[in-house]
């Protein structure tokens, strides 16, 4: 195949669709730029934990797919990361990454054997993403076997050999640094595949990679992530009295976690957001130490609920790992996770709020591998309250010792170390910028500094910011109490305003395995009708004759004669039925279960019921030719139904009542007449007559504010509502991305209008046009359903708005009136 090229327009469109953070977009672009040579080179992206390496991986796959690549292998170091990676491609999972145009066939150790994905493996047009642990790819030894190296009858060769033959294979190594501990095995397992490119993603690159010129192609440090407000702020909490025993550390951690939970609960209720339960993370050195810590936490004076303490070690069973995967669920009972070096990387949750390391607090303890478990923001962005926006590290060492080690902590943990000559983007080969001064305020010491200078055209310097906080426990708890008092009162809709029932369009989860339940009885019956009549087998008769010519020469020739009907073996219907059921139950795509047997009976019953005209089924034999042809036709129909079902995108409508009776307090507000040149992000604007809510937020003056002003004064409209940019009022596109419109307006005739404003520059982009088409189709479908009333869609650009001084004129110039 021809190899990929760098396409900036595709990258920008993809970044918009998938809503990539800026460092993720830049990292993906850099990888594409570096691997377009297709010479099999290895590149590494070094990004701080919590920034979103998962999105880089998914975006890179979509880019490669758009360029014709069809074979991508994601290598993971363990079960936890493998499960998380598979979930990234599952629309029904909370870990699903939306917005991609291409939906791959995900191939794992659980589904590649037995022919379930055999068709896809041999389909050159199918996008295949293989997700395997590196251990399953390594060569077998005398003591170990590896299924990937064993010939599979449905593939025709071993999976490993199949990957080697792919001329467009790209390998993405998640947690790339892990494989350096087994460098030889990694080399043999991955390099021997001879991929066109090997892309490593990690938060902590191995020193070996740093020393290879051109290996680390992109860097984004934790300091930059903190400065850009993409992760939490780490705060070291200590005791001035010097108590360092385990029980005291755990008791203080539990108390601080509880206070954070109360603050988060108050904030979530006021702002109408789901509760994200803060969880304590305890890191131990041994199973014995972990068991002791878990027993303490479950006891009186601590968390006090054994079911709320989850212990994870190398010996943990499957149910414990499942509970670990569910701790972000608001219904999860888990409030503390105790681990023995099992969760240092790849465990991506957003609700680790307090960390205790029951080991010597040295600089290596605060590496991103441990600190990173608590860096992800619970609501995806900073909310302005320290108890929610920070991760607290309980560190009961002397105040003097912590201050003495602050420089080491900051330089080695928060600022990435650059190796001269590495050529890493964003590193510049320079040493970290010297740390700035520390200041003390209300019992907290904050350390400030400047992040490394980014070069290579990747953006401006990160401004001076707080990198790390230190506070004694007493002042930290006092800060929590003060924050709780600052949480404002709620805001309610205007009196008499309606509650709008918005039909949010959601994708239904696709099945991940084949089933005979996909096959409809009606389709089968239509096929069965073709077999109502007997199928005769003709005996072709050819005569051989001869003539003598005038030269007395004899010439032979053949001549077709009238055909005769051949006799055939007759098969009773009972036998035909048995053969049909056996044929479809033994399809390699199926896993034989009781339910499948029941469905096979249904399918064959519908087929024969349409094919047989007499009621006396048992005494109506079929000739062999008809029975044989029926077998092949029914098999093709079933396989076609499999493919159609798995390829079909289905959706449902979920009714969302808006606005909620309690809305977030607007914080800062100003009258709408004070909007001049541009709007202030996060500012609430008041003074509206027809808005359902008294306070409205905007992102753009040239579109959103103009629309709001038109709607507010129009006699044709009764109410309008500004929609949240990340709420439940969205239309999900077939590629998984979510479209959040700007407004809903209700006119005097009861018609609901979904309203979107876009700048002229954005209005013709591929992603915007896709959302516009989806919204128009949505409005038509919702109206036809009848239960939601009449809905229409209005798409207004800056040019439309410049021509309109009323709602009626806007409907005309946009073409929405018809």
Q: What's this, in brief?
A:
The protein is built from 25 helices and 30 strands. By secondary structure, it is an alpha/beta fold.
Describe this structure in words.
With 818 residues, this protein is of the alpha/beta class. The strands form eight sheets. The chain has a nine-stranded mixed sheet with strand order 10-11-9-12-13-8-16-15-14, with helices on both faces. A seven-stranded parallel sheet has the order 3-4-2-5-6-1-7. The protein has a four-stranded mixed sheet with strand order 25-28-29-30, sandwiched between helices.
Write the layout of secondary structure elements.
Elements (H helix, E strand, L loop, with lengths): L7 H10 L4 H14 L6 E6 L5 H14 L4 E6 L2 H9 L17 E3 L10 H4 L6 E6 H4 L21 H7 L4 E5 L8 H8 L6 E6 L4 H5 L4 E5 L1 H6 L5 E6 L7 H26 L7 E5 L3 H12 L10 E4 L5 H8 L10 E4 L12 E6 L10 H4 L14 H4 E5 L4 H16 L23 E4 L2 E6 L15 E8 H14 L13 E8 L13 H8 L9 E11 L5 E12 L4 E2 L1 H13 L8 H18 L10 E2 H24 L3 E8 L10 E3 L12 E3 L14 H13 L3 E6 L8 E2 L5 E2 L3 E5 L4 E7 L7 H20 L5 E7 H5 L4 H8 L4
Parallel strand pairs: 1-6, 1-7, 2-4, 2-5, 3-4, 5-6, 8-13, 8-16, 9-11, 9-12, 10-11, 12-13, 23-24, 29-30
Antiparallel strand pairs: 14-15, 15-16, 17-22, 18-19, 20-21, 25-28, 26-27, 28-29
């Amino acid at each position: 195949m021809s190899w990929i090229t760098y396409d900036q327009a595709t990258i920008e469109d993809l970044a918009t669709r998938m809503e990539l953070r800026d460092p993720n977009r830049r990292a993906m672009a850099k990888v594409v730029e570096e691997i377009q040579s297709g010479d099999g080179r290895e590149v590494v992206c070094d990004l701080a934990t919590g920034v979103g390496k998962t999105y880089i991986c998914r975006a890179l796959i979509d880019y490669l797919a758009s360029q014709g690549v069809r074979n991508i292998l994601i290598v993971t170091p363990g079960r936890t990361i493998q499960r998380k990676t598979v979930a990234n491609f599952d629309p029904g999972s909370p870990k699903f990454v939306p917005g991609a145009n291409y939906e791959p066939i995900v191939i794992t150790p659980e589904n590649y054997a037995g022919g379930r994905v055999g068709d896809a493996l041999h389909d050159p047009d199918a996008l295949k993403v293989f997700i395997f642990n590196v251990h399953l790819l390594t060569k077998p030894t005398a003591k170990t076997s590896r299924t990937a190296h064993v010939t599979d009858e449905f593939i025709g060769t071993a999976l490993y050999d199949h990957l080697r033959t792919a001329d467009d294979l790209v390998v993405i190594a998640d947690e790339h640094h892990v494989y350096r501990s087994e460098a030889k095995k990694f080399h043999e397992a991955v390099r021997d595949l001879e991929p066109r490119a090997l892309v490593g993603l990690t938060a902590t690159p191995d020193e070996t990679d740093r020393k290879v010129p051109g290996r680390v192609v992109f860097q984004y440090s934790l300091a930059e992530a903190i400065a850009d407000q993409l992760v939490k702020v780490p705060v070291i909490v200590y005791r001035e009295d010097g108590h360092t025993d385990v029980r005291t550390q755990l008791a203080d951690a539990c108390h601080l976690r509880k206070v954070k939970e109360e603050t988060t609960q108050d904030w979530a209720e006021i702002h109408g957001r789901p509760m994200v339960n803060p969880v304590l993370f305890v890191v131990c050195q041994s199973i014995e130490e972990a068991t002791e810590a878990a027993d303490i936490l479950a006891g009186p004076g601590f968390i006090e609920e054994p079911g709320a303490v989850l212990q994870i070690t190398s010996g943990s069973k499957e149910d414990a790992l499942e509970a670990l995967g569910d701790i972000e669920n608001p219904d999860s009972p888990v409030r503390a996770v105790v681990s023995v070096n099992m969760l240092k990387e790849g465990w991506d949750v957003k609700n680790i709020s307090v960390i205790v390391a029951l080991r010597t607090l040295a600089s290596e303890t605060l590496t991103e591998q441990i600190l990173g478990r608590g860096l992800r923001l619970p609501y995806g962005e900073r909310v302005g309250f320290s108890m929610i926006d920070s991760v607290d590290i309980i560190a009961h060492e002397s105040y003097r010792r912590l201050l003495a080690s602050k420089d080491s902590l900051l330089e080695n943990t928060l600022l990435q170390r650059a190796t001269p000559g590495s050529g890493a983007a964003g590193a510049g080969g320079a040493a970290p910028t010297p740390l700035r001064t520390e200041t003390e305020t209300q019992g907290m010491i904050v350390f400030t500094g400047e992040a490394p200078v980014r070069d290579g055209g990747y953006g401006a310097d990160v401004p001076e910011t707080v990198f790390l906080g230190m506070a004694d426990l007493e002042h930290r708890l006092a800060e929590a109490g003060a924050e709780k008092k600052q949480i404002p009162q709620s805001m309610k809709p205007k009196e008499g305003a309606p509650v709008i029932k918005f039909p949010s369009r959601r994708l239904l989860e696709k099945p991940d395995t084949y089933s005979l339940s996909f096959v409809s009885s009606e389709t089968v019956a239509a096929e069965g009708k073709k077999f109502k009549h007997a199928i005769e087998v003709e005996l072709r008769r050819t005569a051989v004759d001869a003539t003598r010519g005038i030269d007395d020469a004899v010439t032979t020739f053949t001549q077709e004669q009238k055909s005769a009907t051949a006799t055939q073996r007759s098969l009773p219907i009972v036998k035909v039925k048995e053969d049909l059921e056996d044929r479809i139950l033994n399809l390699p795509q199926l896993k034989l279960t009781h339910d499948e047997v029941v469905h096979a009976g249904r399918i064959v019953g519908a087929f024969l019921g349409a094919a047989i005209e007499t009621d006396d089924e048992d005494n109506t034999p079929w000739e062999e030719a008809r029975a044989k042809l029926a077998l092949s036709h029914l098999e093709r129909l079933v396989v076609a139904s499999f493919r159609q079902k798995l390829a079909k995108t289905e959706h449902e409508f979920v009714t969302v009542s808006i606005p909620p009776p309690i809305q977030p307090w607007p914080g800062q507000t100003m009258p709408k007449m004070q909007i001049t040149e541009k709007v202030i992000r996060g500012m609430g604007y008041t003074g509206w007559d027809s808005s359902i809510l008294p306070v409205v937020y905007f992102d753009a003056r040239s579109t959103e504010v103009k629309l709001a002003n038109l709607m507010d004064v129009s006699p044709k409209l009764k109410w309008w509502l500004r929609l949240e940019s990340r709420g439940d009022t969205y239309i999900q596109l077939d590629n998984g991305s979510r479209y959040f419109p700007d407004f809903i307006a209700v006119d005097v005739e009861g018609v609901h209008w979904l309203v979107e404003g876009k700048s002229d520059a954005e209005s013709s982009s591929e992603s915007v046009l896709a959302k516009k088409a989806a919204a128009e189709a949505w409005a038509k479908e919702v109206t036809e359903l009848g239960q939601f009333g009449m809905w229409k869609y209005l798409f207004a650009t800056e040019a439309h708005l410049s021509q309109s001084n009323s709602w009626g004129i806007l409907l005309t110039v946009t073409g929405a009136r018809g």
